[in-house]
Structures are given as C-alpha cells and as structure tokens.
From TrEMBL, chain A:
Membrane topology note: Multi-pass membrane protein
Subcellular location: Endoplasmic reticulum membrane
Name of this protein: PIG-U-domain-containing protein
Similarity annotation: Belongs to the PIGU family.
Keyword Endoplasmic reticulum attributed: yes
Organism: Glarea lozoyensis (strain ATCC 20868 / MF5171)
Automatic annotation (TrEMBL), chain B:
Protein origin, superkingdom: Eukaryota
Gene3D superfamilies: Zn peptidases
Listed transmembrane segments: 20-41, 360-383, 430-450, 457-477, 497-530, 542-564, 588-607
GO cellular component, as recorded: GPI-anchor transamidase complex
InterPro entries: Gaa1
Designated name of the protein: Zn-dependent exopeptidase
Family annotation (PANTHER family): GLYCOSYLPHOSPHATIDYLINOSITOL ANCHOR ATTACHMENT 1 PROTEIN (PTHR13304:SF0)
Keyword Translocase on entry: no
GO biological process terms, semicolon-separated: attachment of GPI anchor to protein
Keywords: Membrane, Transmembrane, Transmembrane helix
Length: 424, 618
C-alpha cells in the first residue's frame, strides 16, 4: 500500500512538471524560439538552433561541421534525425526534452533516496537526519525556473545533465560499469564531464557491491579507467562512422579546448579572449584549462570521504569557469545542492549569494538588451553582470564547501560546535 | 588584521547593529529624493555640448528661401483643399506631388486592433536616393497627416512636400532621405517603422521599397497657418527610451544659434532659467519617461535605435514657415555629415532646459538608493528572522557568558559543554512566504490581461470593479492565510523580506532601463518598507491601511486622471493601445512589480501572526 502512495507522489511531481512545460510550450508558441536565441541558455556548443543547422546539413549529405556553426556531438544528429522535423512537428522535440528532464529528476531522486549525501561509507554527518524528501528535491530541480527555461530553450546540455545524474545514481547503486558508461556518454557529448571521473570512480569504489569487495582501490580505478577509455573510443569510432570522417573531433572538442567562437555567454572566458592579444591566446587558454581542472585533484583528495560532494562542488565550479557555461549548468548545480540540506544551517551567505544570483538574473537580460538592441550600452554592461553572476555562484559554491568542511570538523572537535570561527 | 577580524566578529553579535538597517534604509530614501532635488542646481547639472564633431551644426549656409516660399504656398493650398478627404484620396494627391518632384513613391496600408477598436490607414513615403551615397543609410523626414491631438498638420505636410522638392535639387546628399507622411501620429509611424525593420504584425503591409539603415528621423508637427515664436522639441520615446542627446543638441544649436529661434522642452513655454523652472522641466520629463507612452510620431523610431525627435512650432511670433524649413534643412545637412550612427553623446539623461542636462552617472544613484532601501530591509529582515528571541540575548549579554545556560553536546566519544544560545539554530520556514510572494507576483498577470483585453466601453466599469476588489482582496487573502496556514511572525517577516527583495531587485533593474518609472514606483512604494502587522493596535493598523490605500496603484491612477482632467476610459484605452501597438511595458511594471508588493504590504497589515511576542519593532 505504501509503495503505491509513494509512486503516486512521484507521479504527481513528474506529471506537474511535465504539465507546466507542456503548458509553456503550447500556450506561448513564441517562447521556445525566444529562449533558444538567448545567450544565457544556448551556447555555441549546446544551441538548439545550431543543432538544426547541423541536422539540415547532415540530412542533405553534407558534412554537418562544414560552415563552422555546428559544434556538437555527431550522435545527436542521429538521434534528432530519427525524430520528425522539429519545425513542422515540434511536439516530438518538446516531448523528448520533457522526458529527459523527468529522467534526470528520477536519477536525482534515486541519489537522494540512497542517503549518500548525509552518510557516505567513510563519513556520517551528525546532521544527516535533517533532510528533504526525494520528492522535494526532485521538485526543486523540476520547478526551478532555470531548469524550466533550459527545457523550453532546448539546448543539448540537458542530455549531458541527464547522463551525469545517471552516472552518479548508478555509481551509488554500485553498478560501476553502468556508471562509467553513462559518464562516457556525458563526456562524449560535452567533454568537461571527463573531469568528474576521479570523484565518480571513488564513489563507485565506496559503493561497490560485495563481490568486488576484495579488489584494491588502484586496481579498481585502473579497471574503470580502462573501461572508460574503451567506451570513449567506441563512441568516437561510432561517430566517425556516422559522419564519415574524424573531422568531428576538431569541431566539437577542438572548439571546447581552443574557444574559437566568442559568442557572449554567462561565463568568464568570452570577454577575456575578445580582449586578448593573439600572441598570448594559447598561453591563457592553457592557464584557463589548467585552472578549471586543478580543482579536481584538490577537492577529490581533501573531501575523499564525501565523493558525492566533490561532484556537486565540481559541478558548481564548472558552471562558473567552463568555457561555454549556461544557466543549464547552474540549474544542475542548484539541483544537487539540496541533497546537502543538512549543512544549510552552517552556510553563512546563502541569502546574499542567492540575492546576487537573482539580481544578476534580472540585470543580465536588461544589460544585454541595452547592449544589443537599444544600442545605448556596450559589451562591458553585460560582462559586468556575468562577473556578478559568477561572484554569486562562487560565494554559493565556496559557502557550501565551507559548510561541509565545518560539518566534518565538528565531528572531529565537538567542543567547537557553534563557536565563531575564522577562515584564514 | 586578526584584531580587525575579531572585532568584526564581535560587532556581528552586537544587538545594536540590528537597530541600524531601518534608519539606514530611511536615510537611503531621503538621500535619494534629495539627490534628485539638487540636480537642477548649477553644480550638479551640465551645459549641453556637441560630442560628435562630424555634426558641425549650423556651419552651413541655408538656401531654403525665396521662390521656395511660393512653392510652399502652393502646396499649402493643395493640402488645405484636401482637408476632410479620405485617406486614399489624400495619398493619391500626395503621390502625384512626390512623383512630380522626381521621387520614388510607395504606400503602406496598416490595421491595428486594440480595446475593441480598429485603427487603420495608409502611409505614403517617397525616397530621395542620395546622389553621393550608396543607399546604405537613410534619414527620415516625417509629417503626420494629423498630429497627436488629431489636428490636420497643414503647414507640416506642406513643408515636407516643399522640402522634398527642394532637397531633390541638391547634389550633396550622401544619405538617402525618406519623406514619410503617415495617416496619423500614433499607429501610422509604428506600422511604418515596424515594416521597415521587418518586424510587423499581421494586418500591416510590408514596405514595397526600402532604403538603407535609418540614421535619424525628424518629425514636423506644424498644424497652424500663422507665424510662430519658438520651437518645442519632443524627445521622449516609448518605454522611456531617449534619442541620442547629440541630435537634440544639434537642433537646439541650429535653432537658437543659427536661426535665432528659441527652443523649449516639456511644454515649458516660458522658461526663466530659475531653479523652479528647471525642476519642473525635469519632473515633467521624468513623468513622460515614466509613463513610457509615445509622445509623438518620433517615439516609434527610438526602440529601433533610430534617434528621432518631433519639432513643434508654437506661439505667436515673427518666425515664418521658411525659418522652420531652414532649421530642418540645416539639421539634415548636419545628419548628412555623420560618418557613423550617433553614439558619442548620452542616451540616458534628464534635461532641465534645452541647454542643460544631467547624465546617468549623476542621476542614477537617486533611483538606486530608493531601490537599495528595499534590499537593505530585505537582508535585515532575513537576518533578523533567524536570530534568537530578544530575551535570550539579553540574559547572555547582561550576565556574561559564564552564566548562560550550557548544554551537553556529544559526538561519538567526545563530549563538550556549549552555551545553549549558540547551539540553538532557528530554522527559517521560508516555503510559505516564498509561495505567497511569488503567487502575488503571478497574480499580477490577471489585471494585466484584464485591462489589455477589455473593450473600450467596458473599461471604466471594469476599472471600478477592480478598484473595489483591490481593497477587499488583501483582507480576504489574509483571512485565508491565517485560517489555513496560521503563519508565525517569523513567516510574516520572511514574507516581507522576500517581497522587498523582489521589489528592490526589479526596481534596480528597471532603473537601468527606465530610470523615471523605477524612481516613481520606488517612491510610491517606499512606505512598504515600514509596514508590518500591528496586532492589538487597531488605530495604528487603520492608519497604515489608510496610508497604503492612498498609495495603491488604483488610487494613484484615479488621482492622476483627476489631476490632469482625463477620462478613466480614455487613459485605459490609451494604455491598451500602447500595449498592443507600441509595445509599451509600463503596465507590466505596474501590475507585476508594484501591485504585488502593495498587496503583500496590505496582507501584512491585515495579518495576525500566531505568536505575538516575537514580532519585530522598527
């Protein structure tokens, strides 16, 4: 009886989320186009419009990477060419994106139900009982305006989000191969999820099933790394068969690495590289990428006991420092954060950080309008707001990190509980 | 450094600190208003100047005189003869004239529907291809057949026809010149500009002939026969956007410097350059900007980043229509000099007279301060809502930490004694407050839809019903809230915190787009900062309910219409027209920003917090 009622609640959350999206899709027919064109939602590597362009070329037997507009993985072409044309029958595309969102939420619920956030194998938070139900967490993801806007704007980043969430949920379930497989798909689609491999493999190791209990951590990591490489090779080989050449490597991952497209977005790279003298470009590309990847090692080691939190923090950091971030990455981070409800009381600047993000959410489009349409502003207006946006996100990430560290610290030194402390 | 940090930590615990924000936010409002009031002074405003050197206003000799006056008289007679004729008949004749001048002519039909009425007509325009240009840029000379007041623009249209013939003779134009005669001053220009940029709605014809990117537009509104004294310049665009200040400066420099014609703004017919006159001009400008409506045919051009102004001759004087023509000629010669789009000078400014202004850097702080007052209070209330009840803090501070109640904390094997007040974390229950605030913002869609989709005849009735409902609704909502959820005083604090946070956020964003509207709405909702529930103090509650009722959007609207002697239906019809045709956004701000904040304020006043001890004092 109880399982039946639980399923009903889940169905209610998912149904409501799907209904809201369907309503927005159907009641405002201009909305999907409008949001697709927003730079905050669509980046050069995720834009639905560019996907359409690639699809058109692909269906006319021209290499989709000709013309330098399409920078997404070839498998998306196969997927979308199976669907009826999205301009004549848009409902199929809408349904696909809604299903993806619901699948993501489902994986998120599984992660939440496992209780991994509150008590991992090596660490149990004293506050772990203070948590939200998985329905609340799914609802917080599904009804987040950023998630809804992302769904309506249809960038392909939602596939990556979905894949990462499934990788994490599989890792928690102890299915390390499934986890590696989904992470390989995510990395294949967007490349940056590859950086999640270290914490994810540790999560797999911590939650491995009883028959793998005897393997050492090195063996385990090496085995999974090998399967990851194998899977990635398989996917790449498959893509080259689809498109008929290896050109896609350059146009997809090359674009992420070398940043040739400087379309504005909510991140910090585009403006910096607009201003950059060409002779320094390669150096700073290296610096930016090293900076982004340097967090992985440090966090994985420092928070060895809570690999899921490493993943959460990294997602937050990616949302700020990735080459082409969008609000979809932010919504992903904000979806993972409620899993750590138990450390919220330890966070100090939540209100400030969230107000900053809200301010930036409003001012961003306003300044973009002043720059692009009204002509009374300039690029600095929008860039200033992306700085504020990143500042808000960084405060949130850093504050969550502080709270988790403090939570760990208070277990070691209970007498310090509730005392003022100073960060040095 | 460490000393500084620890004193900061001490300060955070200081109860006095929590007393500061209300005063600080009040100070923000006072400074914000005072800031605005000092702007007209010499030390805070600047004299206007031409930024774009290419314009060279008034540097050329104007030749529009002599025999052209006879041409003007001829056209004038023809226009007079066309008075009262149908739109198509008028355009047939105008087409003849333009063709006779050797210009390419085209027409455009349009039809808009708004508030149950249809606005239709036909625009006619002629293009003079630049002898020295490549049809990549164009400037527009507009003469609406009827002006904003609905009068026949007799001399204006005749002047456009004369100038078209006259300009055709010159070989010095490097930009195309488009002569546009719209059927009216409200829908016609909008239809034409929309179609020029291919963004027109259904019911508007596309333009058969086009030229290059529009660089500027000048509108002549000259509806009388006699000589005039000065020129009145109208510059407000839709949604408070303004044309580049250089355009205005150019016209002022030409009119007053070259031709000796005075220029005035914002219907200040007699400007004596006193503080009072400057302030009045500025406030009138702010009101027009805040309302965001089109003030002339030029307004429709501005959203497309085409700088445009309307020139209205007024008064009884010795300037004749040829002087007006020379002003236009000289202005067009200046615009013709432009090497790139007007961009040098300011797009955000307040004018105090035709030669004095303040730029955004100087005036923006006043609106921002008003908006920030809400944010300060929001943060204050958020912090306050989680702090432990005042009594516990008092015990601790009065008797020192030693005697504060201690509690045993046990983690695994370790045990510790911790002062109880620190361990106590008052959790915020923010779901209900957030739902109330977000819900009220979404509810704003209701009046927005209602007032933009009601036919004209019903509008006054709908308004009165809404106004009455408006005063009943918060009490109903409050009763429902108290009955079904019984919010605590913490939740009321959070309701207020979220409401003020949103208000502050919306207003500071708006201040960058439409300063005046943000300032006006901010000022009118300033009392909301200090509103809370006063359980057991009915007189105070009634006083505040009275005050808030006076500041309700509906009351302010009624007061405004009464003060300016306008009909309610008329204004609402205009608003709906603005929404449907001009793309005016003022209603969104009123119904989705201001009204929800007001409703939440009223709900707080009517509210009864569950535990009455904990309500805050400000």
């Amino acid at each position: 009886m109880s399982t039946f009622t639980i399923d009903r609640r889940k169905a209610a959350v998912f149904g409501a989320a799907a209904a809201v999206r369907l309503l927005l899709f159907t009641a405002f027919p201009g909305l999907p186009e409008l949001l697709t064109a927003r730079v905050e939602i669509s980046t050069p590597v995720t834009s639905f419009k560019r996907l359409q362009e690639g699809l058109f070329l692909y269906n006319h037997n021209v290499s989709p990477y000709d013309g330098g507009v399409y920078h997404q993985a070839p498998i998306l072409l196969s997927l979308f060419s199976l669907l009826p044309n999205s301009t004549t029958y848009p409902s199929f595309t809408y349904l696909l994106y809604i299903v993806i969102d619901v699948l993501s939420a489902n994986a998120l619920m599984k992660i939440s139900e496992s209780g991994e956030a509150g008590s991992s194998k090596l660490y149990t938070s004293p506050r772990k009982d203070k948590k939200w139900t998985s329905y609340a967490i799914a609802a917080a993801f599904l009804f987040n305006p950023f998630t809804i806007a992302t769904c309506i704007g249809r960038p392909t980043s939602v596939f990556t989000t979905c894949a990462i969430l499934h990788a994490v949920s599989a890792a928690i379930a102890g299915q390390s191969f499934t986890s590696m497989f989904t992470l390989a798909i995510a990395s294949y689609l967007s490349m940056y999820p590859l950086l999640l491999f270290p914490p994810l493999v540790l999560l797999c190791y911590d939650r491995r099933s009883s028959k793998q209990q005897d393997s050492s951590v090195y063996n385990f990591v090496a085995k999974n790394a090998a399967s990851m490489v194998g899977l990635l090779y398989l996917l790449a080989q498959m893509s080259s068969t689809i498109t008929g050449s290896w050109e896609f490597m350059r146009s997809t991952y090359g674009v992420q690495l070398l940043l040739p497209d400087l379309t504005p977005n909510v991140g910090l790279w585009w403006y910096f590289f607009i201003e950059m003298f060409d002779s320094f470009r390669n150096f700073f590309l290296g610096v930016f990428w090293i900076h982004l990847s340097s967090y992985v090692g440090g966090l994985t080691i420092r928070l060895r006991r809570q690999p899921l939190f490493v993943i959460t923090t990294l997602l937050g950091i990616f949302a700020i420092f990735k080459p082409y971030p969008s609000i979809s990455d932010t919504s992903f981070f904000l979806a993972m954060l409620p899993l750590y409800r138990h450390v919220f009381p330890l966070m100090r600047y939540t209100f400030l950080a969230l107000s900053t993000i809200l301010y930036a959410t409003l001012l961003g489009p306003a300044f973009y309008y002043l720059w692009i349409y009204a002509g009374s502003g300039n690029a600095n207006f929008f860039y200033a707001i992306t700085l504020v946006w990143s500042l808000g996100l960084s405060i949130l990430v850093a504050d969550a990190l502080f709270a988790v560290l403090r939570d760990e610290w208070e277990v070691e030194r209970p007498e310090m509980r509730g005392k003022e402390i100073r960060q040095v | 450094m460490s000393g500084l940090l620890s004193s900061g930590a001490l300060l955070r615990r200081d109860p006095r600190l929590l007393k500061v924000p209300p005063y600080l936010s009040f100070l923000c409002i006072v400074i914000g208003v005072a800031w605005l009031l000092v702007l007209p002074l010499d030390n805070y405003s600047r004299k206007t100047y031409i930024s774009e050197n290419a314009l060279l206003p008034g540097q050329v000799h104007t030749y529009f005189a002599g025999s052209d006056q006879n041409v003007f008289r001829g056209y004038k007679k023809e226009v007079d003869a066309l008075e009262g004729k149908g739109n198509t008949e008028v355009n047939d004749k105008l087409e003849e004239f333009f063709k006779a001048s050797g210009l390419k002519v085209a027409r455009q039909k349009y039809e808009y529907k708004s508030a149950g009425e249809t606005y239709s007509g036909e625009n006619i325009y002629a293009i003079l291809h630049a002898p020295r240009g490549d049809a990549e840029e164009a400037i527009v000379l507009v003469g609406a057949w009827t002006n904003v007041e609905g009068e026949l623009n007799k001399s204006g249209v005749a002047l456009v026809l004369t100038l078209a013939r006259y300009f055709k003779r010159w070989s010095l134009w490097s930009k195309d010149i488009i002569f546009l005669i719209t059927a009216d001053s409200r829908a016609g220009p909008q239809a034409w500009v929309d179609a020029y940029h291919d963004t027109h709605q259904k019911g508007i014809q596309s333009l058969p002939v086009k030229s290059g990117a529009l660089q500027g537009a000048v509108v002549i509104d000259y509806p009388f026969d006699h000589r005039f004294e000065s020129i009145h310049i109208v510059y407000d665009g839709i949604n408070g956007q303004l044309p580049n200040l250089d355009l205005l400066n150019t016209v002022v420099a030409i009119a007053s410097g070259q031709m000796g014609i005075g220029a005035s703004l914002q219907k200040m017919w007699r400007h004596t350059d006193t503080y009072k006159d400057r302030l009045t001009t500025m406030l009138r400008g702010m009101l027009n900007q805040g309302l965001g409506h089109a003030s002339g045919p030029h307004s429709s051009f501005i959203p497309y980043h085409v700088d445009a102004i309307t020139l209205q001759p007024y008064g009884e004087g010795w300037q004749d229509e040829m002087a007006m023509g020379r002003v236009i000629e000289s202005t067009f010669r200046s615009l013709n000099n432009l090497l790139e789009h007007l961009h040098q000078s300011f797009f955000f400014y307040l004018l105090m007279q035709s030669s004095r202004f303040v730029s955004i850097g100087t005036y923006l702080p006043s609106a921002m301060l008003v908006a920030i007052n809400f944010t300060i209070m929001a943060i204050f209330l958020w912090v306050k809502s989680a702090s432990p009840p005042a009594t516990a803090g008092k015990v601790a501070s009065a008797t020192g930490e030693k005697s504060a109640p201690l509690m045993l904390v046990q983690e695994g094997d370790a045990k510790a004694l911790v002062p109880e007040i620190f361990a106590e974390e008052k959790e915020r229950d923010f779901f209900l407050p957030l739902a109330v605030v977000v819900g009220s913002h979404f509810l704003g869609v209701l009046p927005l839809y209602l007032f933009n989709h009601t036919p004209e005849i019903m509008l006054p009735a709908v308004f009165f019903i809404f106004a009455v409902m408006n005063f009943v609704f918060p009490f109903l909502a409050s009763t429902v809230l108290t009955r079904s959820f019984a919010p605590t005083s913490q939740q009321y604090q959070l309701i207020k915190a979220f409401s003020l946070l949103f208000l502050g956020m919306f207003l500071s964003t708006l201040a960058t787009l439409n300063f005046s509207l943000a300032f006006l709405v901010g000022l009118l909702s300033a009392p909301l900062t200090y509103i809370r529930s006063y359980p057991g103090r009915p007189i105070t509650t009634v006083f505040f309910i009275g005050l808030l009722s006076l500041l309700a959007p509906t009351t302010v609207f009624l007061a405004g219409t009464t003060y300016w002697n306008l009909g309610i239906g008329e204004v609402l019809k205009e608003a709906a027209f603005g929404w449907d045709v001009w793309g005016m956004n003022t209603q969104v701000v009123v119904w989705c920003v201001w009204w929800p904040a007001w409703v939440v304020g009223m709900i707080q006043l009517a509210g009864k917090p569950k535990d009455e001890g904990g309500s805050i004092k400000i």
